[in-house]
Amino acid sequence: MLKRAFCTLSISKNSFAKGSFGYDFSIIHFKSLSTTTRCFQEFTQSSVDTLDIDGSKHLPKQRSLPIITSRKLDFVSQYSQPKQAWLESLETVEENNIGLIDLHPDVFGAFPRIDLIHQNIQWQRLYKKISYETLQTRAEKRGGGRKPWPQKGMGRARHGSIRSPLWKGGGKAFGPRGPQSYFYMLSNNLRVGGLCSTLSIKFAQNNLHIVDSLEIPTDDPEYMEDLIDTRFWGFSVLFVDDTDIMPRNISLAVQDLPSFNLMPTYGLNVYSMLKHETLVLTLAAVEKLEEKLLYQLHRTERQAKFRLHQ
Known about the structure:
By secondary structure, the chain is α/β, with parallel strands linked by helices. It is built from nine helices and 13 strands. α4 (114-126) packs across α5.
């Protein structure tokens, strides 16, 4: 009798949030109590057909699933597979994955060369260093114009000035003569290798996030702080876009937050990526970075030697 009986389950709109399942059900009929579990499983699937009160069928609304974005990747080896990453959105505080994208393995999956990263860090720390230390020579010291004693007859060593480097208070023979620049140019291969290694390390450590754009709904700094805390992006974040004209809301939101910085792709460097815990790239920035780095990795023309004054 129970199998033949009909069980009517009424679910109101208030009992289930419409956005949680993506449907709007009013009445669902189950033919037996033994199939209740199976029907609840079908209730959460997008392929189930619903029945109206009069028994007519209608198709439910399509469920919004993440979209797999297939990108054309150049210079991909047959022995390596593209890397995949979530494409996120900054429109909500909670994590919002809107798709999957392919990343080039030579840029985001390179072997981590710690030596190249170290050379890039040393280069960036030194090329902007200028030493202003200056010591006076014997000609610049005050006094010492006359010979301290005669050349002969005194039994003393021969001296022509008391400002000689041999004397206390004398000038320095080969002292620093500032301002002195420590600028030098690192080779192109070392710079490209350092960028690829750093991007690959960020991707491997799950500290690299890709967003569709840097648009946020408000310019309140608390929104950015809540977003970073909710998504566990750490204490410092570097946002990178393909242009140096950033959206207004995110520019105003991070201007008073010293640990959150905005940067265009042409300024991305190894030191800044390591200084920040999380790296956030827009999809346009990823495409431009891959284009520039792959061109440098696979270029065939010979580069001219760098000269400081050219």
